[in-house]
Amino acid sequence: MVNAVIFTDFDGTVTWQDSNDFLTDTKGFGKEERSKVFEGVLDGTKSFRDGFWDMLESVKTPFPECVKLVEENIQLDPGFKDTFEWAQENGVPIVVISSGMRPLIKALLARLVGPEAIEKIDIVSNEVEIDSDGQWRIVYKDDSSFGHDKSKSITAYKKQFEAAGKKPTYFYCGDGVSDLSAAKECDLLFAKRGKDLVTYCKREHVPFHEFDTFEDILSSMKDVLAGKKTVTELMQN
Ligand SMILES: O=P(O)(O)OC[C@@H](O)[C@@H](O)[C@H](O)[C@@H](O)CO
Ligand SMILES: [Mg+2]
User: What is the total count of domains within the chain?
Assistant: First the structure.
């Protein structure tokens, strides 16, 4: 039986930079176009599914090269490794809930955290399909307008964790538009300072706790689990 679970977004949350944004900005249609697309997603005129598809379709670089590029350029959040170790020591499962593509996530986790991270961290994400001529595309997890409806994945995990009886404390950590479907699912939502998820939460009056790095997340989680602070106190924003 577990008493807490960390659900986390991957790109821009576990990693310091967003790997798909990086690929789009350097190999695809660029930052300006990407920002326009995601303005539409945030104001509800475009689905995340379509916006993300357009963005990735603009990247013509072969997939293995994309993997290499992100491995060389993407860093880890400075507090994630400590959080991972603390979670292992304390029996707190970490579940990555991502709109990114599994092979990129696995490659980055193995390189930045260590090969054991792939064994210890569950990954729920989209996939990728590569044709024999090297053309590749994202394969969405479900039919929702998000491509991956994170709320559904979280609900499925919650059922599993609660099968033993007691409900654990659920944390969710995220940064962006891909987290809109997850924002309301957990007891304590951590949203990264200055990023789109904060804009969304303010607009929709979704309570959240702002963070800069996993160092902040870890210290808040410890406070909650030690009974020093309540979830309500932390979700004051
Ligand atoms: O859900 P994750 O792990 O953040 O992955 C998906 C992200 O790469 C993706 O959402 C990215 O933030 C952009 O489209 C927004 O500019
Ligand atoms: Mg993200």
Answer: 1
